[in-house]
Amino acid sequence: MTRRIRIFDTTLRDGEQAAGVNLNLHEKVQIAQRLDAMRVDVIEAGFPAASDGDMEAVRAVARIARHAAVAGLARTRENDILRAFEALKGALRPRIHVFIATSPIHMEHKLKLSPREVLEEIRRGVTLARSLVEDVEFSAEDASRSEIPFLKEAFSLAIQCGATTLNIPDTVGYAEPSEFGQFVHSVMEAVGAGDSVTWSVHCHDDLGLAVANSLAAVMAGANQVECTVNGLGERAGNASLEEVVMALRTRRDLFKAETGISTPLLYPTSRLVSRLTGIPVPPNKAIVGDNAFAHESGIHQHGVLSKRETYEIMDPRDVGAPSSSLILGKHSGSHAFRERLNEMGYNLSEEDFKAAFKLFKDLCDRKKTVTDQDIEAIVADRLVTLPETCVYELVNFSVQAASDMASATVTLKVQGEEHTDAAAGNGPVEAAYRAIDRITGLSPDLKEFRISAVSGSSDSLGEASVEISLEGRAALGRWASTDVIEAAIGAYVNALNRLSLLGVTSNG
Ligand SMILES: [Zn+2]
C-alpha cells in the first residue's frame, strides 16, 4: 500500500535562478546526466522563451535524458509554448509546463488581468500545449495566496483542456505546514478529479518551511514534489531534493510512500551541483553536509560504535556519503581515475579525460595523497567550464610583495589574443586583480573573497572563491591550486568568464 511520489527536479530552472548562479550549457548537461542517473522522474531544464541559452539547454537535456521526462517552462502565451515544444522535440518524454498566476495580488498588479481573462489564458495555453505533447503540467502561480473557489475553476479548466499534472506552488514561501496540507487537501477535494491526475507542490523556503510544507502536501495526497539539489532556487531557495527524498524514505512507516530515487547518488550529486554553481553546502546541512554524519560527542561516538542506530537514523552509505575520502595517489592508473570520476558524477569526453588525468598526475607530484575534493576542484574548475565559452584565460603571472606594497604582472588571453599588464596594490592579490582590470577594461566590485583548504591536510590545495558584480549582474568564481596566489587569480578570471556568459564583457 505504498504510494509512488514523483520527484520533479528544477535545479536547472528554479535553482539556476538563484542569485549569482549562471551555469553554462556543458555544466547543465553534466548535472542533467546525473539527475537522470539518479532517476528523478522529471527534469525541468529551463524556460525556453526566456533566452537562447535556456532554449539550447532544454534542447541539450532533452537529447540526453534516458529515463526522466524533460520539462520546459512556458507562460500561457503562444510563443512561449511553441518555443518550449521546439526545445523539447528530441525528448523521449517531453513535458510542457504551463503556468499563470491565480492570486488576486498577482492577477491585479502583475498580470493586470481579470479572473475571467486568466481563465481564458489557461484555456488557450493548456489546449495549445496539449495539442503538441501528451504530457502537460499546469501551475497556478502563487496558489497558496489564491482563493480556493477560483483555484477550483482554474484547475478544473486545465484538466478539461488536457493537463494531467496540476501544481500548487507556494511561490512566495508563505505557507505553514499544517495549513498548507489542509489547503492542498481542500483544493484536491474541490476539484474532485480523483486519481485521473497527479497533484504536485512547489514550495519555497523563505520561512525555512519548504521541505516541511512539501511533506505536509504528500500527507494530504500530493503525488509529485518539485525540488532542487541542495535546495537552490529563487531567494531562500526551493525544497531540498535530498531532504524530501530521505524524509520519505526514513519515515516510510508514516508516509507510506516511496520515490524512485537511487539514494546513493544524493551525496555525489550534491557535491557536483555545489561545485558547478559555486554555492557551498553548509557543513550542518541535513543529509549532504560534511557534518551530517559526524559524531563529535564521546557518548554519541560510543553509542554508534556499539550499535549504529543508537544515534544514526540513516546509514551514511544510503546517501552516498564517503566513509573515507582518501582514495588515489601517484600509483593510481587512468582506469582507477576514470572510475572515480564517474562515481563522482563527471562524464568527460576523451579529450577532457586526458587533460584531467594529466592534471591529476601533476597534482600527485605536488601532493602525497589526492582526495575526492582535490579531484573535484581541479576537474570541475578547469575542464567542465567549457574552453569555448571562456573569454579570458590566464597564461601566466608574477608577483612581487613586500610587507606594505606589492606589484603584479599578468598575461591573459582575451578571446585568443595575449595581453600583458602590470599594476601595484596593497597586497599581491589586489595588485594582480588591478592588472587584470587594466587588461579587460572592466572594474567589477569584489563582493566576497575567500581562501580555504580543499581538504584537511597540510599539503592541501588552496581554493579561492570570489564574488564579483558589475552592471547589476553578479558572478561567482572558484579556482584551486597548490599556490594560493594562483588560486586567487584563477578564481577572479573564472568569475569574469561567468560574467561574460551574462553578456558583461569587453575586448580588453
Ligand atoms: Zn519557484
Automatic annotation (TrEMBL):
Q: Which domain of life is it from?
A: Bacteria
Q: Which biological process annotations from GO are given for this protein? A: L-leucine biosynthetic process
Per UniProt, the enzyme's principal EC class comes to: transferase
Task: Tell me the GO molecular function terms.
Answer: 2-isopropylmalate synthase activity; acetyl-CoA C-acetyltransferase activity; manganese ion binding
| Family to which the UniProt record says this protein belongs | Belongs to the alpha-IPM synthase/homocitrate synthase family. LeuA type 1 subfamily.
What is the primary gene name for this protein? leuA
Catalytic activity, reaction form: 3-methyl-2-oxobutanoate + acetyl-CoA + H2O = (2S)-2-isopropylmalate + CoA + H(+)
**Essential cofactor(s):** Mn(2+)
Q: Which UniProt keywords apply?
A: Amino-acid biosynthesis, Branched-chain amino acid biosynthesis, Cytoplasm, Leucine biosynthesis, Manganese, Metal-binding, Transferase
Q: Does the keyword Heme feature in the UniProt annotation?
A: no
Q: What is the lineage of its organism?
A: Bacteria, Thermotogati, Synergistota, Synergistia, Synergistales
Q: State the name under which the record lists this protein.
A: 2-isopropylmalate synthase
Please give the GO cellular component terms listed in this UniProt entry.
Answer: cytoplasm
Matching Gene3D superfamilies = 1.10.238.260, 3.30.160.270, Aldolase class I
